Amino acid sequence: MNLQFIADGLLVGAMIGLGAIGVTLTYSILRFANFAHGELIAWGAYAALLGAGLIGYLAGQTATLGPFSFGWPVLIAGLAAMALTGILALALDIVLFKRLRIRGNAIIMVMASFGASMALRALLEFVFTGEPRYFSREIEIAVPLGAGIRVTPDQLLTLGLALSLVVAMFLLMTRTTIGRSMRAVAENPTLASVVGVDVARVIRATWLIGGALAAAAGIMIGITIQIRPQMGFDILLPLFAAAILGGIGSMPGAVAGGLIVGLAEAAAVPLVGAGFRGAVAFLILIAVLIIRPTGLFGARG
Predict the structure, then answer these.
(1) How is the chain split into domains, by residue range?
(2) 115-141 per-residue burial string, b: 16 or more CB within 10 A, e: under 16
(3) Exposure winner among 79, 131, 148, 259, fewest CB in 10 A?
């Protein structure tokens, strides 16, 4: 029995889960669905692409790194892109969302996020056109793992990096002061403010972390698939499906939801065809909203 869809689903699910963490953090702390989050994924990927090209040019580095299809400039540029995308997310809040948040209207913020999403995507298309870009065009040989499963070194690396980031996020949320403050604000921002939590600082940290994780997801998609201005929009529905499936506000739920959505999409390819893969996230989203609106890890009302 060919179980290749499991490897494909885990890889895609890990990327979706990383992006969904940012979605669920934003919703639980800021109380609105940020539809511009998908564009942060694309901006992070393009930032890393530009940075890797610049570093490679200045350093004269063209060789690949071990068995991987890319060199060390991609790793350095990836870290810089995560920081820059976090700053971009924070800038969006300062320029746009903070002003609207004062008015206390979540619907206006959601509509504003739609507008920001279209503007960010249009800017990418204007600068880079719609032509797909790649970190590398080196050909990799997939490694057989048994049961018909074959994976490339790039895929193994991205899966390991995704797992590392999830563990780092878990430690941040449970072992650090800012993590505990974020959980307190998500539970009750008014009470958290009364007991001395700096809510403004928590909001800034939320945007920075969410943007950085979005960039990481975009870089992983760029390494294993390709980079396009539409890549963030294409993954947006799976992100929200994963966040809602896991339970809004639950970081482990977002990761679990991402893996479930990724596996379901991969399993749909041999069963119903690749043309219906995109509908799987929508069907999962509808099913969760009907059966258990609070998600797998959400508290029942």
Answers:
(1) 4-291
(2) ebbeebbeebeeebeeeebebbeeeee
(3) 131
Q: Hey, what are 45's tokens? A: 């990927």
| Cα separation of the two ends of the chain | 42
> Considering only CA atoms, which of 154, 122, 133, 164 is closest in space to residue 255?
164
Q: Mean pLDDT over all residues of the chain?
A: 89
CATH number, domain 4-291:
1.10.3470
Tell me the three state secondary structure of residue 198: coil
pLDDT band at 301 (very low <50, low <70, confident <90, very high): very low
- Copy the structure tokens of residue 60: 């004269």
Amino acid at 182: M
Tokens of residue 220, six digits: 């992983």
Is the separation of the CB atoms in 186 and 193 below 8 Å?
Answer: no
Q: What is the pLDDT of residues 97-114, one digit of tens each?
A: 998 888 777 888 999 999
Quote the CA–CA distance of 166 and 144 in Å, as a whole number: 26
User: CB-based contacts of 5: which residues, under 8 Å, 6+ apart?
Assistant: 263, 266, 267, 269, 270
1 has pLDDT over 70: no
Whole-model pTM above 0.90? Answer: yes
